[in-house]
């Protein structure tokens, strides 16, 4: 069982959250007109084994988007902060 420490609500069970995707992917500039960068942004994802930064949505709590570090091998949770604070 994964327990996530939401900065607003405190520690909660993972069942209150939904996975939102890879938080390391960067959107291409709006002026980018080559299809390659957009293809990579929309469809291409790594399948990391070990530490990974991810988006999670607290749908059954404060409804905030979070960025957290999770080890995909052990499910150990590292730092967690609000996505709006990530720049």
From TrEMBL:
UniProt keyword annotation of DNA repair present: no
GO terms of biological process kind: tetrahydrofolate metabolic process
Protein name listed in UniProt: Sarcosine oxidase subunit delta
Alphabetical list of InterPro entries matching this protein: SoxD, SoxD_sf
Keywords: Plasmid
Molecular function GO terms recorded: sarcosine oxidase activity
Source superkingdom: Bacteria
Organism field: Parasedimentitalea marina
